[in-house]
Here is the input.
Amino acid sequence: MPELATAPQTPAPVMPPGWESVTLPGLTAEEAAVLSGIERARVPAHIACIMDGNGRWARKRARERVFGHHIARDAVRKVVDTCHRIGVRYLTLYTFSSENWRRPKAEVFALMQLLKDTLAREKTELHSSNVRLRILGDVTELPDRVRREVEDSETMMRQNTGLNLSLAINYGGRQEILRATRALVARAAAGQLTPEAVTEAAFNAELYTAELPDPELLIRTGGEQRVSNFLLWQMAYTELWVSPVLWPDMNRLLLLQAIRDYQERDRRFGGL
Here is the structure.
């Protein structure tokens, strides 16, 4: 009896040189090709993301905006997992801005509930993965049920030493700068600070990001060409990478492409 013909088997992608010790489950050939152009030792230490486009993604599918926010959680998981695996030390996600309170009350309520439920569901796995969670922003204005979950999650992961995941919640860059300025002015008024002592280091120490390095790469989805009051002080020399892709469609390949493009830039910091 003749043997049945079998379909040719596509070999599994091989990790590029320098990445052999990294595990990326389900790595595709396209992802492997992009990864081969990334120098592992120069992966940005701190990546920040403006996760834009959830509402537009939902409207394109004739769904309510909040549906896009729910689907966006999958993109967050992919980005967090990939950053954790490839050696990014700090990841900051613009989760809810101080301006987002202006949205319809129903959407704000849904966003708050989504934040609470997501942290309650994900914190155990994040903790077991040694992820440290930080919250940037004024959590005192959050609904009590949300604030308690945020604070409990942050406390649970405070001693972890892996990926530093920061969620900017009720955060605004201008508000953060004003907050830091007021703290320095109060110390000066109390005779604890001279004008000469107001240095960049002293100012940095009063920011929500006091323990974090400045972002090296900002990823913004949704195509908008602005920073939207996000990390204004910290992004003085951050490289910007904007994609028209809406956040719910953000994936590992796009993240790797952003990192590769970042490494191809000549960062001079004002010099030659």
